Amino acid sequence: MKSRLLFFALFCSSFLFAQEEEMVETQVLPNEIAFDFSGFYSPILSTNFIGFSMDIRYYVRENWSTGINISYASRKMKTDFQYDVFNPAVQYSEISWLNQFDLLKKEKFRIGLQLSNGLAMATLVDRDVTEEFWDEYGVTESAKRIETNYFYILQPGIEAAVRVYDNDRFPDVYLTAKAKYRQAMGTPKFATTSDFTNYYVGIGISLIGFVTY
Fold it and tell me: What is the rounded distance in angstroms from the CA atom of residue 100 to the CA atom of residue 86?
């Protein structure tokens, strides 16, 4: 599976760069910025994680955008992974560099291939024990952190967007749906790498526009 995933990622990368070379040379200015806000579902640690995701993408070419993705989810667990935790939970987050090439870009409908890579963190916490720390707002309390896993992640995927509101000179509103496959790589301190490798689906709203020429 890992070799097929890497092959697909290399294919997507080659496809993106090949398409970039075919772009008309006169189009050198970006024409759009996209903000995606969505809820997502992904099986992690053999249970269901539901969380929030945000993409910010900048169109460097007419059909090619690049930016960042941030995702977060938290779930109470039935096991403490042999850490003697009274009320275990796992806080899962991702931050990755995202590239998207729009295979189809019509006035009211878009389909794009995505490829992202970055860092995933899974922190085992004890919800019955709080710890305090200082930040710019003063003293903040949070669940006690027991252990944290760090992974490099590679995620090919696809996104479809349908325009639901034409906002004239302001950003248009799109209903979006996306599906990805997350390959996690690393040496976890609890559970196994395969527990964090799985599919990822999301649905949400996109604001596309902001900059036009």
Answer: 43
